[in-house]
Amino acid sequence: MIIDRLIEKIKETENPTVVGLDPRLSYIPAYITDKYFEKYGNTPKAAAKSMLKFNKKIIDSIYDIVPAVKPQIAMYERYGIDGLKAYAKTIEYAKQKGLVVIGDIKRSDIASTAEAYSDGHIGVVDINGQKYKGFDCDFITLNPYLGSDSITPFLKDCKAYDRGLFVLAKTSNPNSGELQDLVCGGRPIYEYVGALIEKWGEEYIGKYGYSSVGAVVGATHREQAARLRSIMPHTFFLVPGYGAQGGKAEDLAVCFKDGIGAVVNSSRGIIAAHMKDEYKTCYNDERFFAAAARQACIDMKNDLRRCI
User: Fold this and answer.
1) Where would I find the H helices in 170-212?
2) 72: CB partners within 8 A, 6+ apart
3) How far apart are CA 267 and CA 219, in angstroms?
4) How far apart are the C-alpha atoms of 217 and 238, rounded to whole Å?
5) Residues 204 and 212: beta-carbon distance below 8 Å
6) Which residues are bridge partners to 102 per DSSP?
7) Do 265 and 32 meet the contact criterion of CB atoms below 8 Å apart?
8) Which pLDDT value is given to residue 17?
9) What residue ranges of the chain have pLDDT lower than 50?
10) Spatial distance between the Cα atoms of 223 and 215, rounded to a whole number of angstroms
11) What is the rounded CA–CA span in Å between residue 232 and residue 286?
12) Domain count, the chain
């Protein structure tokens, strides 16, 4: 099962870090962007080419020390078709390097539309008997707020193609509580969602006791994360919010059991490490941005292992 592969990659690297590949043009060194803007002008194509080159350099520097990467599709969609090509090629390159890929798409819709989303991101599309993969992610993120019928098509493809999901349960953003913490029938909504995710994952449990149907649980909400861990014993967590959003290793330790049970995301804390004061001294040439990202991964690994 894909969840077993993710856990084995975590064990192999001794690192529960997932690198968020969420590039902004401001993160990309000028020696990369200048080349493409000169060739293609100030166009979406130049931006997308720059992002892909940047991503490949980052992947080359970290593929042997982390288990997974998580490209956020919105950062690519903003550049239209060219951006989506960069997204697809980023996924392809990361998988060539042996990384597990989590497509951060947060899709949700009625069943027929959900089926189309699933076909494109974790399933296949059939064209007159010929089957093709779309973006070919190992896992994707989903929004559950349309209910079970919006999730079922994705569950079918998880079974058919050995894929996985991370469904939003308690997110790391400051205003998540406006909806997720509302109390209904004596329990907050995020607990109801957590119980649903645990149920959805019952048929997808691997040899380590975790399901390929996981949950997104923010590092910035320690008490809620602890509660969710207690009611979701078989659910693997994708934990955003570490670092730049304020989550600390001490806060997210509750997401783990016996050293496993979660992967922790860091995006700009790693891919933009070369812009941070703590790394500028050692990596003061923009061409060393990927080396700074690698060191940031190592530092994050050591920080997490200190607490879990």
Assistant:
1) 177-180, 189-200
2) 20, 21, 22, 104, 267
3) 14
4) 6
5) yes
6) 139
7) no
8) 96
9) none
10) 16
11) 44
12) 1
Amino acid at 20: G
CATH code assigned at 29 = 3.20.20.70
Tokens of 277: 């004061």
Length of the chain (residues):
308
Q: Which of 35, 56, 95, 106 is catalytic?
A: 106
How confident is the model at residue 259, as a pLDDT? Answer: 85
Res 121: pLDDT: 97
What's the one-letter identity of residue 159? Answer: K
pLDDT given at position 244? 66
Nearest to 93 by CA among 11, 18, 21: 21
Please report where in the chains the tokens 């980023």 appear, as a residue.
90
Q: What is the residue type of 133?
A: K
- What is the distance in angstroms between the CA of the first residue and the CA of the last residue of the chain? 24
pLDDT for the residue numbered 178: 85
> What is the number of H-type helices and E-type strands within the chain?
14, 12
278: helix, strand or coil? helix
Structure tokens at 25: 């043009």
Backbone phi, then psi, for 106, in 5-degree steps? 50, 45
The question of whether 257 is a catalytic residue gets the answer: no
Predicted local distance difference test score (pLDDT) of residue 173: 84
Residues 6+ away with beta carbon under 8 Å from 230: none
Question: Alpha carbon of 267 to those of 26, 69, 228, 240, 273: distances in Å?
Answer: 14, 9, 24, 9, 9
Does residue 135 sit in helix, strand or coil? coil
Q: What is the pLDDT of residue 26?
A: 95
User: DSSP for 223-243?
Assistant: HHHHHHHHH-TTEEEEE--BS
Question: Which residues, 6+ apart, have CB-to-CB distance to 199 below 8 Å?
Answer: none
- For 141, the enclosing helix (H) or strand (E) is strand 139-142
Give the structural domain span for 172: 2-307
